[in-house]
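Slide 14.
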Amino acid sequence: GGGGGGGGAPGPGGMTGTTDIGADRTVVDVMYVNPLGMKSDRPFDGVNIIVTRYSDGTVTTTKVLK
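Slide 15: predicted structure.
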């Protein structure tokens, strides 16, 4: 017999498909900022700075063109 297992940590808002460099941290917040400094939880048209906050307190920023 045997086998089984699995399961995973539930994420805030059911976020899936994220790729974490550190296995011990999870994404807790993602914010988009445009060049004028406006913030949103959805991407703007044009240039976005994506601010990603992790459960261990680290924050990363990435500039993208949408």
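Speaker note: The two ends are 51 Å apart (CA to CA).
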